[in-house]
Design a protein that fits this description.
There is one protein chain. By secondary structure, this protein is of the alpha+beta class. The chain folds into 2 domains: about 100 residues, PH-domain like (Roll), CATH 2.30.29; about 50 residues. About 35% of the residues lie in helices and about 25% in strands. Strands 1-2-3-4-5 form a 5-stranded antiparallel β-sheet, covered by helices on one side. Strands 6-7-8 form a 3-stranded antiparallel β-sheet, with helices on one face. Helix 1 packs antiparallel against helix 2. The protein is elongated and about 75 Å long.
Amino acid sequence: MPYNWTRPQAGAERELHLWPHQSLPPKGYVRFIGLTAALICVPLVPLLGSFLLWGLLPFLLLALFGMKWALDRSRRDHQILEVLTLTAEEARLERINPDGARQSWHCNRYWTRVEMHDHDGPVPHYVTLQGGGREVEIGAFLSEEERVALYGDLKDALSVKQA
């Protein structure tokens, strides 16, 4: 699951960290770029020593660097972190966006409600937190099954009173 709870000691805060799933780990990224570069070089082998090689090489390099740029951009756009902190008195949600901007929400824990919008949200099983006169989304980047599991975890966490 692309989220986890920290296990507090007695009387400590409880935190939930959420992040988007990254399907291409760094090792896979390096392998993919290397394999793509090797496969792009295959059609160049018969052209070694000819002027046609220099005509094709810029386009093949442009394709390789275009692929690298697209993968880097995708990874950078999915660098999101949401942190839900639950104390005995307060619930705080902070979202750190890919550009480093921070968005925050806080509410008295007693008045905090977790809601699931099965069909009327931007994604199926859209999970929101309500309280303090606002409604904020949480985990919208998760898969449908992960949002359902998150909803259950949040219901359980918010119903338990901390000492």
